[in-house]
Amino acid sequence: MKSNQINIPYKEIPRAEFSEEIKLLEQHAIEAARKAYAPYSHFLVGAAVLLQSGTIVTGSNQENAAYPSGLCAERTALFSAGALYPDDPVVALLIVAFSEGKRVDMITPCGACRQVLLEVSSRFNRSFQVIMSGEQRAIVLDDNKMLLPFAFDGSDLPKE
Ligand code: THU
């Protein structure tokens, strides 16, 4: 038997050290969270996707009375980016959330969103940054793939 370990590199950045890029993406994500449709969970999530061209595409969670029919903010933003700018690679994704009127310290993508993040990076053959932003700090992963160890992706499927 052999024991192995997977390490996940990430940075914790205090608000005072936020780059201009993070500040800009955060503003967009907060604005998006205000437009969330979350009458069931009352949990408002906003996502801002930065594309290589500099374009920013946002999304918020969109809920449904038939719960699984709703969609998370991350997928709303990424699918929107893919639909509007299919040839513009994703460079970064920043997410924020509000619960009971208060900013959530750290919002992290759900499992289904992680799988979609992976597909986006496979599509463009380029990993992107994931920024989970809270009031005091941001947790930053430079490689979205780190969110999904032992992932299943297109390379597992037959070519033809
Ligand atoms: N949600 C997101 O939009 N993103 C996440 O990363 C976690 C959860 C949404 C789904 C649902 O509308 C609400 O938050 C509560 O789960």
TrEMBL record:
GO MF, one annotated term: identical protein binding
Family to which the UniProt record says this protein belongs: Belongs to the cytidine and deoxycytidylate deaminase family.
GO-annotated cellular components: cytosol
Top-level EC class as recorded in UniProt: hydrolase
Active site (UniProt): E74 (proton donor)
Function: This enzyme scavenges exogenous and endogenous cytidine and 2'-deoxycytidine for UMP synthesis.
Binding site for substrate: N61, Q62, E63, N64, A65, A66, Y67
Keyword set, alphabetical order: Hydrolase, Metal-binding, Zinc
Pfam family of the protein (one): dCMP_cyt_deam_1
GO annotation, biological process: nucleobase-containing small molecule metabolic process; pyrimidine-containing compound metabolic process
Coiled-coil residue spans: none
Domain CMP/dCMP-type deaminase: 20-141
Organism per entry: Porphyromonas circumdentaria
Protein name per the record: Cytidine deaminase
Signal peptide: none
Source species taxonomy: Bacteria, Pseudomonadati, Bacteroidota, Bacteroidia, Bacteroidales
